[in-house]
Write a structure and sequence with these properties.
single chain; 170 residues; mainly alpha; 6 helices; 3 strands; globular
Protein backbone atom coordinates (compact mmCIF):
# COMPACT_ATOMS: atom_id res chain seq x y z
CA UNK A 1 0.00 0.00 0.00
CA UNK A 2 1.32 3.43 -0.91
CA UNK A 3 2.23 5.87 1.84
CA UNK A 4 2.11 8.85 -0.52
CA UNK A 5 0.17 9.75 -3.61
CA UNK A 6 1.11 11.86 -6.64
CA UNK A 7 -0.06 15.45 -6.35
CA UNK A 8 -3.02 16.70 -8.37
CA UNK A 9 -0.53 18.61 -10.53
CA UNK A 10 1.33 15.37 -11.35
CA UNK A 11 -1.88 13.49 -12.09
CA UNK A 12 -3.10 16.30 -14.38
CA UNK A 13 0.22 16.26 -16.24
CA UNK A 14 0.01 12.47 -16.50
CA UNK A 15 -3.54 12.61 -17.92
CA UNK A 16 -2.46 15.25 -20.42
CA UNK A 17 0.55 13.17 -21.53
CA UNK A 18 2.89 15.98 -20.55
CA UNK A 19 5.38 14.14 -18.32
CA UNK A 20 8.96 13.09 -18.92
CA UNK A 21 9.10 9.30 -19.46
CA UNK A 22 10.74 8.44 -16.13
CA UNK A 23 8.22 10.41 -14.11
CA UNK A 24 5.26 9.21 -16.18
CA UNK A 25 6.23 5.57 -15.71
CA UNK A 26 6.56 5.89 -11.94
CA UNK A 27 3.11 7.53 -11.80
CA UNK A 28 1.71 4.73 -14.02
CA UNK A 29 3.25 2.13 -11.70
CA UNK A 30 1.70 3.78 -8.65
CA UNK A 31 -1.69 4.05 -10.33
CA UNK A 32 -1.71 0.37 -11.29
CA UNK A 33 -2.69 -0.55 -7.72
CA UNK A 34 -4.10 2.73 -6.36
CA UNK A 35 -7.85 3.08 -6.91
CA UNK A 36 -7.77 6.54 -5.31
CA UNK A 37 -5.30 7.91 -7.89
CA UNK A 38 -7.02 6.03 -10.74
CA UNK A 39 -10.25 7.86 -9.88
CA UNK A 40 -8.51 11.23 -9.68
CA UNK A 41 -6.73 10.67 -13.01
CA UNK A 42 -10.02 9.60 -14.63
CA UNK A 43 -11.52 12.92 -13.52
CA UNK A 44 -8.64 14.78 -15.20
CA UNK A 45 -9.08 12.64 -18.32
CA UNK A 46 -12.76 13.65 -18.47
CA UNK A 47 -11.86 17.29 -17.87
CA UNK A 48 -9.35 17.16 -20.74
CA UNK A 49 -12.02 15.59 -22.96
CA UNK A 50 -14.47 18.37 -22.09
CA UNK A 51 -11.87 21.00 -22.95
CA UNK A 52 -11.23 19.31 -26.31
CA UNK A 53 -14.96 19.11 -27.05
CA UNK A 54 -15.26 22.86 -26.47
CA UNK A 55 -12.26 23.78 -28.61
CA UNK A 56 -12.72 25.14 -32.10
CA UNK A 57 -11.69 22.86 -34.93
CA UNK A 58 -8.48 23.91 -36.66
CA UNK A 59 -8.02 22.98 -40.31
CA UNK A 60 -5.02 20.77 -41.06
CA UNK A 61 -3.24 19.84 -44.27
CA UNK A 62 -5.31 17.34 -46.31
CA UNK A 63 -2.44 14.83 -46.45
CA UNK A 64 -1.95 14.80 -42.65
CA UNK A 65 -4.21 11.78 -42.06
CA UNK A 66 -2.62 9.80 -44.92
CA UNK A 67 0.87 10.59 -43.60
CA UNK A 68 -0.09 9.43 -40.13
CA UNK A 69 -1.69 6.23 -41.38
CA UNK A 70 1.43 5.44 -43.46
CA UNK A 71 3.53 5.64 -40.32
CA UNK A 72 1.22 3.17 -38.58
CA UNK A 73 1.30 0.53 -41.31
CA UNK A 74 3.11 -2.66 -40.33
CA UNK A 75 5.04 -4.87 -42.75
CA UNK A 76 3.26 -8.01 -43.92
CA UNK A 77 4.23 -10.99 -41.76
CA UNK A 78 6.58 -13.43 -43.46
CA UNK A 79 7.68 -16.91 -42.44
CA UNK A 80 10.99 -15.46 -41.20
CA UNK A 81 9.19 -12.84 -39.13
CA UNK A 82 6.84 -15.44 -37.63
CA UNK A 83 9.79 -17.68 -36.68
CA UNK A 84 11.54 -14.75 -35.03
CA UNK A 85 8.37 -13.72 -33.19
CA UNK A 86 7.76 -17.31 -31.98
CA UNK A 87 11.34 -17.71 -30.74
CA UNK A 88 11.16 -14.34 -28.99
CA UNK A 89 7.85 -15.31 -27.39
CA UNK A 90 9.23 -18.61 -26.08
CA UNK A 91 12.34 -16.86 -24.77
CA UNK A 92 10.14 -14.27 -23.11
CA UNK A 93 8.05 -16.97 -21.45
CA UNK A 94 11.23 -18.44 -19.94
CA UNK A 95 12.20 -15.10 -18.43
CA UNK A 96 11.14 -14.84 -14.83
CA UNK A 97 10.38 -11.28 -13.78
CA UNK A 98 10.20 -10.21 -10.18
CA UNK A 99 6.66 -11.17 -9.23
CA UNK A 100 5.53 -7.69 -8.23
CA UNK A 101 7.19 -5.74 -11.03
CA UNK A 102 4.50 -3.32 -12.25
CA UNK A 103 3.33 -3.75 -15.85
CA UNK A 104 4.64 -0.34 -17.01
CA UNK A 105 8.19 -1.50 -16.13
CA UNK A 106 8.09 -5.03 -17.54
CA UNK A 107 8.99 -4.10 -21.11
CA UNK A 108 12.24 -2.54 -19.86
CA UNK A 109 13.42 -5.66 -18.01
CA UNK A 110 14.27 -8.30 -20.61
CA UNK A 111 15.94 -10.76 -18.28
CA UNK A 112 15.53 -12.14 -14.80
CA UNK A 113 15.51 -9.25 -12.34
CA UNK A 114 18.51 -10.59 -10.42
CA UNK A 115 20.49 -10.97 -13.66
CA UNK A 116 20.32 -7.30 -14.68
CA UNK A 117 23.74 -5.65 -15.08
CA UNK A 118 23.75 -4.15 -11.58
CA UNK A 119 26.49 -1.66 -10.70
CA UNK A 120 27.93 -2.12 -7.24
CA UNK A 121 28.05 1.03 -5.18
CA UNK A 122 28.78 -1.10 -2.11
CA UNK A 123 28.32 -4.80 -1.39
CA UNK A 124 24.88 -4.05 0.06
CA UNK A 125 23.77 -1.39 -2.45
CA UNK A 126 23.46 -1.99 -6.19
CA UNK A 127 21.82 0.07 -8.92
CA UNK A 128 20.59 -0.40 -12.47
CA UNK A 129 19.78 2.62 -14.65
CA UNK A 130 16.65 2.21 -16.74
CA UNK A 131 16.69 3.20 -20.43
CA UNK A 132 14.04 5.91 -20.21
CA UNK A 133 15.92 8.50 -18.18
CA UNK A 134 15.96 12.04 -19.53
CA UNK A 135 14.36 15.46 -19.40
CA UNK A 136 15.83 16.10 -15.98
CA UNK A 137 14.87 12.72 -14.50
CA UNK A 138 16.96 9.62 -13.94
CA UNK A 139 15.17 6.31 -13.44
CA UNK A 140 17.01 3.61 -11.52
CA UNK A 141 16.39 0.36 -9.73
CA UNK A 142 18.15 0.08 -6.41
CA UNK A 143 18.76 -3.24 -4.70
CA UNK A 144 19.44 -2.60 -1.03
CA UNK A 145 20.22 -5.44 1.37
CA UNK A 146 17.80 -5.82 4.27
CA UNK A 147 18.69 -3.68 7.27
CA UNK A 148 21.19 -1.56 5.32
CA UNK A 149 21.09 2.19 4.86
CA UNK A 150 21.74 4.41 1.90
CA UNK A 151 24.92 6.46 2.20
CA UNK A 152 24.42 10.04 3.34
CA UNK A 153 23.32 12.02 0.30
CA UNK A 154 21.66 15.28 -0.67
CA UNK A 155 18.42 15.86 -2.48
CA UNK A 156 18.67 18.30 -5.35
CA UNK A 157 15.42 18.74 -7.18
CA UNK A 158 12.59 16.23 -6.85
CA UNK A 159 12.99 12.60 -5.91
CA UNK A 160 10.26 9.98 -6.34
CA UNK A 161 10.59 6.48 -4.94
CA UNK A 162 8.55 3.41 -5.83
CA UNK A 163 9.22 0.48 -3.50
CA UNK A 164 8.83 -2.83 -5.32
CA UNK A 165 9.61 -5.15 -2.44
CA UNK A 166 10.25 -4.53 1.24
CA UNK A 167 10.17 -1.13 2.87
CA UNK A 168 12.17 2.07 2.66
CA UNK A 169 12.71 5.22 4.69
CA UNK A 170 14.89 8.22 3.93
Amino acid sequence: MANYHPSDELLMSFSAGQMPDALGIIVACHMEDCAHCQQRAALYDRLGGEILMNTEDVPVAPQLLDNLLCKLELPEPSAANETQINSEASAASEIKLIQNLPKPLRRFVNKEFGQLPWSGMTSSLKEFQLPFSGNGYTAKFYKISAGKELPVHTHRGNEYTLVLDGSFSD
